[in-house]
Amino acid sequence: MISFYPGPSKIAPDLDKYMQEAYDEGILSCNHRSPSFMQLMEECLLTIRKKLDLPKNYEVFFVSSATECWEITAQSYHGKKFMHIYNGAFGEKWSKYNQVNDPITYEFPLHKNISLHQLSQLGAADADILCLTACETSNTTFIHPKTFQKIKKRFPNPLIFIDATSSMSGLRMDWKSGDLWYASVQKCFGLPSGLGVMICSPKALSKINKKDTHYNNLWSIYKNQQKRQTTHTPNILGIYLLNKVLQHRPDITTIDITLKKRMKETEKFFKKLGYEFLVPVSRLRSPTVLGIKTSKEKVQLLKKLAKEHQITLGNGYGAWKETSFRIANFPAHTDNDYDKIKDFFKKIEKV
Ligand SMILES: *Cc1c(COP(=O)(O)O)cnc(C)c1O
């Protein structure tokens, strides 16, 4: 079975080998304040820095999931003036988790760029934190790195928080255009779920509410990370696997180019077959997840037939649950996987 579900998705190659290695090395029985764990954490942080090409002064933290980051940002920046800018289910959920801070929301249409003019009218310049979703996995829209740069330039004061769950480690990020980035590892990292990665600028660190007493408050996470430890007993296997998987990957620029090229070819392929995309404007489509719109009946039929061909298509999500399907284009997918999915669709459409 090849999973094109946008998370959990196909896992990275050789993961079975790394799991066996973790078992054999005994790291899974080590206490999370032991030198063995601290060494693993040190190594994994260095690998992330190197492979994702992070700015030197940005910090990396381990958390449990992207959803947890919604909670952490609400708690550890409590009392700040938040503005949530979104166009789909994940961005909206983030703002819902943040009701305690009574945020301003700006919902932009699926087929349009974010309007800086409208952001300005809503008071973005005076906000403390702007929250955005780099790839809205639910409806497969994409915020272009140039758009992030423009937002940063136009609104230099607020911190910019970015949910990069279905793009981190798949696409090259312009890290400096954001202050706090996060992702779960079951998307582009090609790992089993249960671990999240958060990346933080010095400016975001300087504004943490140090009085936050939740177990997963960002200030404790940071203080522990300085000792190469975590606030709680973390997902040690996940951290071990993350380190191994990233170590064996090419640099992020190469991955970025590969995924974008493959997405362009895939779009062309489906267009030729007469399929319609969820996102009409090509520039606003995520290079990591393709959303295709069709009838409810056809979605059901395609999913059933795909299964018979050992292919898992991703369900639609939220408003698009029944009338769309999604295809992940993550680093763990190979060109051979894409040949298989294309052969399947050629067969179905009899071309
Ligand atoms: C998958 C996803 C999430 C949720 O991830 P969890 O690991 O379930 O917390 C949040 N945001 C985006 C954009 C996602 O794609």
Automatic annotation (TrEMBL):
Assigned keywords, A-Z: Pyridoxal phosphate
Chain positions with N6-(pyridoxal phosphate)lysine modification: K187
Residue ranges constituting the Aminotransferase class V domain according to the UniProt record: 11-316
Matches recorded under Gene3D superfamilies: Aspartate Aminotransferase, domain 1, Type I PLP-dependent aspartate aminotransferase-like (Major domain)
Binding site for substrate: R326
GO biological process: glycine biosynthetic process, by transamination of glyoxylate
Reported cofactor(s): pyridoxal 5'-phosphate
Matching InterPro entries: Aminotrans_V_dom, PyrdxlP-dep_Trfase, PyrdxlP-dep_Trfase_major, PyrdxlP-dep_Trfase_small, SP_NH2Trfase/AEP_transaminase
Keyword Ion transport: no
GO molecular function: alanine-glyoxylate transaminase activity; L-serine-pyruvate transaminase activity
Record-linked PANTHER family: ALANINE--GLYOXYLATE AMINOTRANSFERASE, AMINOTRANSFERASE CLASS V
Similarity annotation: Belongs to the class-V pyridoxal-phosphate-dependent aminotransferase family.
Name recorded for this polypeptide: Aminotransferase class V domain-containing protein
